[in-house]
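Milestone M4 deliverable, item 7.
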Amino acid sequence: KTTFFDLEQDGFLRRFDTAGVLWPAGYLLALCISAPILCNIPEISLVVRQHIQQQYPTTSSNSLRTKPVAIEIGAGIGAASVAFANMFQEEQQRFFQSKQKISDIQKPLILHEQSRPAIIAADFASHALALIIANSQRANCTVGVAQMDYRNTTSINDLKRKYLYHTTISKDDHNTNKQHQIQNDTGRFSIVLGSSLQSLFHDTENPNHELWKLLKLLLEEDGIAVFSHVKTDPIKEPSDRSFRLIRVVSGDVFGMKTRSNDISDFEVSLFQRYHQPFSILKSNNIHENNEL
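Output delivered:
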């Protein structure tokens, strides 16, 4: 199946503006998220499917784990977030269709779950957030939008308090459903996405580098981070290996070329936050440092 997205950007209004333009790295990341298997990052699909299965309510359940599965930092016009939301919705629909029977208790819970964003697109520029909203609406998918400065801990924690919570649906004396949100300041995302974040991608061998500090705030243990960047500035794993470089995929896999028709200048790096020897990735016989 081929999906086309008609995306808005600010190329004519704010020429060469970083946040309002779809740059090649963002384009490659969106392609990779749209087709994780073709991109040789099946871990994305694995995490999404596990998340959907965990969200599915049992016949006696009145609780949902409604936290988003992913966040895109420095999202710009939101191309990768739109691609992720569309992919998630298709996986979710296939899962629900596979269920033979849905009870009356499950139906409102499922409808509630389908209305929640699976990904949060975060950027500091307000005009970028407007473009993300427009592009998600054009693509008919649900994307959460948040203004966040990834260099500011307070800004990061504000976003987490807004989106990382647990929802319980219960009935009061009048037999009406009520939602109760329980804040969870220690919540993390399962997937972190980013592209063209060049200021975050330099000298990353240092375990105290800004990139790894940011991921420790946003990414859960054993979670994965997918970054698109130029090949001349590869992202290196920290010396303490608290984050493991699992795989590097060249833009060549999607036929990307330079203006002079040479091989692609861009690549995607997959990292995992290391927690224990037998992680979610290794348990599926996926080896480290395989490179296309």
